[in-house]
């Protein structure tokens, strides 16, 4: 609604959450409209009258901590709005809070509230897949069996990641094993890795253990998680849907609960997309911030090694291990959360709405202002930068793997092979033009990030059905690339928050921060996610 | 809000409840606004988009039955309103439903809904008092020990009231026992009753059993349930509050669960008031419809014998036994539920609001239109009719018991004795004037009842604290008499529904029907209350 005071309402909602956390009953009283008609309903009954509500609050002695996941804002009039907030509790249970807000002389106040909760969902990823009789590693769409007799490398067994089981994407060197890259012919010709990739070694040194080697899309050049050779890993968070890729096996394993952490790569979205489809926290680091040694390249200008996790705290702890030593200063908070109407509208409408609810929750939970960017990008710009990215990616991918494709023309499925071969035809002039476009995109994004962190959908859709046609998969990939390649080509860190829901399907909210601000970005998780119980 | 379409909104809400009962998913779909923003949240999570909500409804296959108890309507704009509905389930559990309504081209539709439920409350009357070690009959403020060696009369043991335990007000003849009337000196001089009062006998013949003889206010001439001789029965539904009177012991016993049915009398409100204070269904019959033989009189022009119960079905079954044989025709439904703004405003504001929520629930649950009476009474009229009633009541009470008071000047507490003595001074002219006022009141009410059933607060306040001052008790009594004596002086039947809540204190909604329409009035209970599980 034009002229609606979204900022004021969200600020009031943020004050409410803050007061609730601190059990500041006076502040909570002030945020409820005084009067006999004000009401608060919980579970099965209502209290009517602000004095009864206030008395209840004093009796209660604090509410259990909760974290906002989605805030659905419905504007009724310039001075009236409803918020329906979905929350997560420490025990994995969830809650709902509906509030009717009115703006009067004392600002935005709640005139009616309805609170309810539910225990931990039966369908929680991990819980659902826990069939003690089944050996999860028999699922060869998710896990690749080691080919070498050497045992999987052991970690130090102690440290901040003690007990964390890692699903290592089959693009990352595991000592004593060969790297398969999602392609049987590649595995066949690969040499045994003499050492773990440094990123994996860092996790092991911090106490993590290798759960297994996780499947990947062919040479990581896909986003859907469909692999012609070993099949499509099941998506425990969205049954009947693809897991997304190319870190498909890592994501599927973490979603199913057979691993706690996914170590993967992200060139054009290969962590953020499966994170979005499988309902996982995902982190793509600043380009160059995490050592990619020992990792199969796809397009080195954009390649990164990053992480996936069900639990925010696991992601944050593991990322801290991979990042360069902290500079000692406190995490920087952004001045605002920024939304681009253009980028949001590139997602399908229900996804855009879902991500908007997640973004609103992030703003209310952190108290950060939520602003629309003023000089928004145009769809023409987005089309241009996506095309530019694809040009450079294809050229670099051909440079990396053209030799293998030439030597083994049938090793890849036709669709993926065609993506590589497109890179063979990129001329120097086209490449220079693409690089110039990318440079402009980088300047454009830096302009936004000077004012706040840019928030956008991680993917244009939730996970497509496994039985989608190739055309449908390609459409989903093309739509998502318009969103996902922005971080890729500008090198900024990206954090995927798995909070959106389209029906019951997860979809991610992606937050972009300035290059090098990974620790600040990850510090956001402390504000918005429960610590392990 | 002026011009708000309350009737249209309540009609839509009634259609919604009806469709929900029938699991008519198409009708439910039609009552939800189409579109991507429409949402439905339950327990801990939300579904966004009318198609997702519709799909959920088809998967669900019907909702458990529920009955509305309070509907809080909050008008936001001429085209927008919130309803928060409190419901009761078959298992005694409760539920909440918040709905944001918008009036668009297709009429009133829900744009956002939040549903939650809770199990049977721990504090349910009856459950709370169930200490198996304690003998409830040792509570002599509630129960009067039999003075005679004869056993309490047994019932037939079978029939529609099988298993129903009756708390018999100590104003009603119990065979083999004396009637105490709440006054030790009266009990002392009373003769042993040769037979049960016919009303009691009818209940016993239908299978009910006598739980015990329940205390009463002194000679029934009070409304608070405070008795200087045996104390104040505890109110299990409102701890620390009086139970109301004069059927105080019957109400306290039923609220505590040591009886299922209270057999009592109502002259000026002596069933409806304790029903309101103790959260019980209460029925005052059409004057003359139930035999008062064997019952101590107070003011015969107004005296009735009626009932109290926790469960609506028990009240309805017992009332059916007491009433003359049905004429065989179907129960008549009123054309509307009527509200008098003047009468509602005679209750204290929080009580008026609470009763309004109950009345709105009754309208939505039954689908009956809720109309404000057009030619409303004035506060002057009410003052006049209350005074007229008190004049006639006092004169008749003195006529009934003046002899006893003269013979035993110290038998009653001073406050109650003063009420009787006021009747000694009523002159013939005052009495004639009062009777004329009452006649006008009767015509006035009959005018209303020709258009619908009149709904008003059962009491002006919830139960006052037990430690109220005499002045506070007198103020509560005077306020309530303005409401309760309307049925008394016009002889119409009254049904008290225990649905209002001021904070956690119960307060009753009273429905008045035309004289003789008791069975139709009680048939309302079938529409609004769960059958016994």
TrEMBL record, chains A, B:
<feature type="region of interest" description="Disordered">
    <location>
        <begin position="116"/>
        <end position="161"/>
    </location>
</feature>
<protein>
    <submittedName>
        <fullName>Asp-tRNA(Asn)/Glu-tRNA(Gln) amidotransferase A subunit family amidase</fullName>
    </submittedName>
</protein>
<dbReference type="Pfam" id="PF11533">
    <property type="entry name" value="AtzH-like"/>
</dbReference>
<dbReference type="GO" id="GO:0016740">
    <property type="term" value="F:transferase activity"/>
</dbReference>
<dbReference type="Pfam" id="PF01425">
    <property type="entry name" value="Amidase"/>
</dbReference>
<dbReference type="InterPro" id="IPR023631">
    <property type="entry name" value="Amidase_dom"/>
</dbReference>
<dbReference type="InterPro" id="IPR020556">
    <property type="entry name" value="Amidase_CS"/>
</dbReference>
<dbReference type="InterPro" id="IPR032710">
    <property type="entry name" value="NTF2-like_dom_sf"/>
</dbReference>
<dbReference type="InterPro" id="IPR024507">
    <property type="entry name" value="AtzH-like"/>
</dbReference>
<feature type="compositionally biased region" description="Low complexity">
    <location>
        <begin position="117"/>
        <end position="135"/>
    </location>
</feature>
<keyword id="KW-0808">Transferase</keyword>
<feature type="domain" description="Amidase">
    <location>
        <begin position="155"/>
        <end position="322"/>
    </location>
</feature>
<dbReference type="InterPro" id="IPR036928">
    <property type="entry name" value="AS_sf"/>
</dbReference>
């Amino acid at each position: 609604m034009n002229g609606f005071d979204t900022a004021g309402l969200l600020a009031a909602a943020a004050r409410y959450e803050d007061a609730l956390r601190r059990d500041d009953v006076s502040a909570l009283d002030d945020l409820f409209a005084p009067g006999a008609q004000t009401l608060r309903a919980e579970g099965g009954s209502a209290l009517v009258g602000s004095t009864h509500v206030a008395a209840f609050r004093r009796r209660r002695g604090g509410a259990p901590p909760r974290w906002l996941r989605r805030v659905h804002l419905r504007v009724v009039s310039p001075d009236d709005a409803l918020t329906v907030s979905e929350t997560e509790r420490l025990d994995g249970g969830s809650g709902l809070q509906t509030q009717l807000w009115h703006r009067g002389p004392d600002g935005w106040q709640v005139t009616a509230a309805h609170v309810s909760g539910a225990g931990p969902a039966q369908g929680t990823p991990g819980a659902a897949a826990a069939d003690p009789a089944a050996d999860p590693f028999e699922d060869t769409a998710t896990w690749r069996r080691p080919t070498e007799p050497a045992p999987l490398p052991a970690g130090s067994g102690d440290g901040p990641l003690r007990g964390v089981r890692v699903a290592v994407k089959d693009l990352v060197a595991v000592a004593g094993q060969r790297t398969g890259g999602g392609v049987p012919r590649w595995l066949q010709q690969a040499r045994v890795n003499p050492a773990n990739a440094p990123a994996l070694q860092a996790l092991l040194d911090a106490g993590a253990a290798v759960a297994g080697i996780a499947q990947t899309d062919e040479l990581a050049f896909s986003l859907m998680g469909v692999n012609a050779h070993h099949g499509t890993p099941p998506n425990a968070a969205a049954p009947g849907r693809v897991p997304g890729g190319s870190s498909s096996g890592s994501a599927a394993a973490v979603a199913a609960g057979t691993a706690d952490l996914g170590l993967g790569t992200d060139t054009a979205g290969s962590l953020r997309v499966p994170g979005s489809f499988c309902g996982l926290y995902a982190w793509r680091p600043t380009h160059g911030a995490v050592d990619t040694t020992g990792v199969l390249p796809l397009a080195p200008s954009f390649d990164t090694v990053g992480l996936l996790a069900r639990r925010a705290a696991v992601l944050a702890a593991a990322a801290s291990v991979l990042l360069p030593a902290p500079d000692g200063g406190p995490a920087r908070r952004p001045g605002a959360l920024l939304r681009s109407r253009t980028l949001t509208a590139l997602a399908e409408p229900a996804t855009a709405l879902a991500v908007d609810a997640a973004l609103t929750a992030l703003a209310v939970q952190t108290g950060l202002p939520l602003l629309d960017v003023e000089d928004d990008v145009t769809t023409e710009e987005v089309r241009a930068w996506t095309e530019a990215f694809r040009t450079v990616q294809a050229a670099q991918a051909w440079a990396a793997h053209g030799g293998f494709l030439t030597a083994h023309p049938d090793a890849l499925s036709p669709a993926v092979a065609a993506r590589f071969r497109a890179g063979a035809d990129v001329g120097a002039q086209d490449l220079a033009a693409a690089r110039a476009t990318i440079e402009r995109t980088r300047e454009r994004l830096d302009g936004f990030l000077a004012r706040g962190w840019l928030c956008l959908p991680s993917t244009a859709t939730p996970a497509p059905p496994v039985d989608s046609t190739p055309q449908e998969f390609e459409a989903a990939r093309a739509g998502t690339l318009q969103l996902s390649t922005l971080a890729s080509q500008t090198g900024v860190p990206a954090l995927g928050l798995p909070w959106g829901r389209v029906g019951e399907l997860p979809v991610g909210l992606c937050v972009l921060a300035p290059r090098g601000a990974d620790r600040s970005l990850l510090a956001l998780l402390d504000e918005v996610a429960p610590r392990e119980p």
